[in-house]
Amino acid sequence: MRDLQIVFMGTPDFAVATLKSLVDANINVVGVITAPDRPAGRGRKLHQSAVKEYAVANNLPILQPTNLKSESFLEELKKLNANLQIVVAFRMLPKVVWQMPEFGTFNLHASLLPQYRGAAPIHWAIVNGAHETGLTTFFIDEKIDTGEIIFQKKTTITATETVGQLHDRLMKLGAMLVLETVEAIKANTVTTYKQPESVLYSPAPKLHAENTKIDWSLPMLDIYNKVRGLNPYPVAWCNLLQDDEKLAVKIYAVKILKEEHTIKTGTLLISKSEIKVAVKEGYIIIEELKIPGKRKMDSKSLLNGFTFSENAKML
Questions:
Q1: Mean pLDDT in consecutive groups of 10 residues from the start of the chain, 315 residues
Q2: Can you tell me the distance from the alpha carbon of 253 to that of 302, in angstroms, rounded to the nearest whole number?
Q3: Is residue 37 within 8 Å of 47, Cβ to Cβ?
Q4: What sign does the CA torsion over 176, 177, 181, 182 have?
Q5: CB count in 10 Å sphere of residue 74
Q6: Predicted pLDDT of residue 197
Q7: Which of 29, 217, 289, 292 is deepest in the core (most CB within 10 A)?
Q8: How many angstroms separate the Cα of 118 from the Cα of each of 8, 56, 145?
Q9: Which residues, at least 6 apart from 304, have a Cβ–Cβ distance to it below 8 Å?
Q10: Which homologous superfamily is 6-186 in?
Q11: pLDDT at 75
Q12: For helices 50-57 and 13-24, what crossing angle results, to 10°?
């Protein structure tokens, strides 16, 4: 059995579950690399990453480089004398970093590679209406999410699951898969295999204002999947045309109502307790939303204090 000395790299909550599993299993974590503290909130106070908070609470050595190629960081990293590095929800590493340890650097990615390479694999699996996803551990190479696969674990996606719910499930399953991978590396029983090059796969690019905006001309199932695939973060949105003013509205939850009609797409149909948007195959019923200046609320609560104009519509 190999004697492992591990450096862990990660930033958000998703990574904390894995780091905690390593510590709880008495695996030797000799250092933690995470993002620098950043200003956040109205007071712009420095905010620690979730991984740093856990590392501080558990007395783990911490490095927070702004430049992963800087000589000072590379010297500090070498001093940790790690022979294995584990990356979970961090940034792209330069070759000088991922090549440093004797047993390599492996990454946990929240998809079944080569599907959903990129920054937002959990979101895009749901947005695209996938029925299955999973997790992959792989050794890092020069490109993004292209390295040789160590292990994969599959899981189904339910028809109503949000990205938040799937994120939390994959977070727990991912921690278990990393432990399994560490044990295999420790026992020197790992057999990797190359990712298939001939497979047509869906990418998982970063999310931004353009690709999170709802297109009401799309099939209703695509709209439904987009909303749940972006709930609770960063949230699907659209413009509400209200009295010749455009309001950016965040939409958290919707239902589908299939019904033939001849109403123009985007038209709003408002009752005392319901907000419906006309689409090609019927209606999208908005269940939860946020209008500028108001808190997030269900439609019935919003309608108690907000009046839509007669010609209001979704753009």
A1: 96 97 98 91 80 97 96 97 97 96 98 96 98 98 95 97 98 98 97 89 96 97 98 97 93 97 95 94 97 94 90 93
A2: 14
A3: yes
A4: negative
A5: 17
A6: 84
A7: 289
A8: 20, 29, 7
A9: none
A10: Formyl transferase, N-terminal domain (3.40.50.170)
A11: 97
A12: 30
Q: Can you say how many angstroms the Cα of residue 147 is from the centroid of all Cα atoms in its chain?
A: 20
Q: What is the spatial distance between Cα 128 and Cα 256, in angstroms, rounded to a whole number?
A: 17
- What is the pLDDT, as a whole number, of residue 244? 86
The DSSP secondary structure of 193-222, one letter per residue, reads: BPPPSS-----BPPP-TTTTB--TTS-HHH
- CA–CA separation, 121 and 133 (whole Å): 9
Is the pTM higher than 0.70? The answer reads: yes
Q: Where does residue 78 rank: exposed (0-12), middle (13-18), buried (19+ CB within 10 A)?
A: exposed
- Retrieve residue 150's tokens: 């160590």
Give the pLDDT confidence score for residue 144 in this predicted structure. 92
Peptide bond preceding 232: is omega within 30 degrees of 0, i.e. cis? yes
How many helices (DSSP H) and strands (DSSP E) are in the chain?
8, 16
Query: Which position has the token pair 């839509």?
Result: 308
Domain locations in the chain as residue ranges? 6-186, 220-314
Q: Cα–Cα–Cα angle for 24, 165, 208, nearest 5°? A: 110
Tell me the C-alpha distance between 116 and 111, whole Å: 6
Q: What number of other Cβ atoms are within 10 A of residue 252's Cβ?
A: 20
Count of CB atoms situated within 10 Å of the CB of 31: 21
Residue 153's pLDDT is what? 98
Q: In CATH terms, are 6-186 and 220-314 the same topology? A: no
Strands of the sheet containing 84-88, edge to edge, are 62-63, 29-33, 6-10, 84-88, 105-109, 132-139, 149-156
CATH superfamily of 220-314: Formyl transferase, C-terminal domain (3.10.25.10)
